[in-house]
Every structure is written in C-alpha cells, then in structure tokens.
Amino acid sequence: MLTIHTAELLVTGPTGSAAAPLPGGAVLVEGDRIARVGPYEELAAAYPHARARSWPGVLTPGLLVRGADELLERTYYPDDPYEITELGAEPITGDVALADLKLTEARWGNSARRGTQKLLARGVVAVAGRFTSPAVRTAVVRSGLTVVRPAPYEGPAALDPLAGRAAAEEAFHGVLEPGAPARFAVFAVSGPAELLVQGPTTCVATVIAGRLLHRRR
User: Fold this and answer.
1) pTM listed for this prediction
2) I want to staple 64 with a disulfide (CB 3.0 to 4.6 A). Which of 126, 131, 155, 186 is the partner?
C-alpha cells in the first residue's frame, strides 16, 4: 500500500546532508521504504490512489536516544494504574531501590515495553546501547526500534533524545530520501529550532518500517 505523509514543513535531514526544508513537503511510503520525497501536490497528483495522512507541524527523521541500556535495563517503569498507588508514577532507578522491588525477568521485560512506548511517544526510532537482558532485548526488538552501538553522552541517560544536544538535528537518525527506511516522526512545532526548545513530547506521530507506531490521541 502507498501512503503519503505530509506536514506543514518537511525536514529530510541535518543541514548540509539533505535537501533544504520544504514547506508542504511529503514522503511517499511503499511498504517499509520511502519511495519518493517532494511537494505534497506533486506526489498526490502522481499517486492519486495513495492514502494520505496530513500532520500538523514538522516532519523529520526519527530521533536517536543514547544510553538506552540505562533507560531500559536499569530503570523500572511502574505499571499504570496497577502499581502507581504503591510505587508512584515516576521511573525507579538506583541499585538499592531496584533491589527492593525483587524484579523478575518477566517484570523487567514488561517495564522495558512501557519504556519503549514512552520513547516512541517522543519520536524515537533508534536506541544506542548494549542489552544483556533477554527479556529487555525482546521488548526492544518487538517495539520496532533500531538498536545501534552505544554512543557517548554526558549526564544521566534521559528519555528525551534531545537532552545534551546543541541542535535537534544532532538527534536525527538517518535521512529521508528515496530507498531509505520509512522511519520518521512528526512534531507539533514550526521547525527544528522550536523542537529543541519545546521538546520531543510535542510528537504527534512516529512511523517505523512504514507502520504508524505512535499517534497522539
């Protein structure tokens, strides 16, 4: 199936490595790949039977988060609503606090699944880290997130892929071009500069392998 995703602004990649930002731009997705990139009117005329999804804001490559092993193997995300009364809503970290929970491998896997959902809701399509827990690794693979080798970062690991970045483009994973994997995100902001200020929770949609894996309700 062919799907055209369009937004108020299309940014295909970091400055210097991709085409200039295109107002009203769009990507044509066929299967798990990008087939074409260009003005929405041009793609819609060339492919009149393609399904069209129109999004507010800016469409960019999906984001890469660093320290994913810390976020998913050494951070526990309480199950809402079942554990919130006892444990609270905030992620739990620290050797002592985690030891007190007496977590089984299955609970770690379920926690990682909730963690990947939080990442998808922030426009994340790839994670940098090395996973040693089979349950966590399975949760990550099933989420659709791409796993890349660990990358250096300063400060504590954060669900925010823009943390510690000087520009939002530094977190882009890949470039949106014909033949590239169809993995991108849409944010309800005017462009990358505002994205850095407002943050990735402005994400309205995340697409991986051509599938819409997150959509803001």
Assistant:
1) 0.96
2) 126
